[in-house]
Amino acid sequence: MDHKEIIKALEWRYATKIFDPAKKVSDEDMHTILESARLAPSSVGIEPWKFLVVANPEVRTKLRAAGYDQPKITDASHLVVIARRTDAEALPGELIARAAKIEGKAPEELAGLRQMAEGTIGARTDAALRGEYLARQTYIPLGIMVETASLLGVDNCPMEGFDPDQVAAILGLAAKNLYPVAMIAFGYRGDDAFAKIPKVRRSFEEAVEFIA
Predict the structure, then answer these.
(1) Nearest Cα to 64, choosing from 162, 133, 184, 172?
(2) Which of 92, 123, 146, 150 could bridge 117 with an S-S bond, Cβ 3.0-4.6 Å?
(3) What's 174's DSSP letter?
């Protein structure tokens, strides 16, 4: 894919409000979108997230009520809830176990990485600040999913417009040490007037500054 095609896909993309319920995203496309999220970078590699693909129509109806009755929550082909971990103290140990297995090393050989990860988490003693730090990490895979879907020609709409406590209760997230941060809908646009509105952005010169 050349540079112009990438920009064209991102210019084509908009925050889709109305999805066609009859059109479904292929399993292959959704796998690629989710795989791109899995491969996202995170601070020290702790990956403090979970991507919950909600297929159950009844659950999605409940989520729509928690999401201020946004039609896309039920009408889009796929709905993904992005949640952050709430048990931050477990993340460094999980990272070391993953790295040791994948790199074929003993955990003791990764003492430097463990110290870095534990220091990163431990430096944020305030629970609210720690939660905010973990939540910020989840926006990295969210952005990557937006781009990947757009490059595949799949409409998408990330959203924060929902009651997170209600969503957590509906999905039973507390028991999984998770808390919802954002949702993103995937599918194909229906008769959506917003699709015809020109994209409003600052110019390249306004948005980008080169410091020599």
Answers:
(1) 162
(2) 92
(3) G
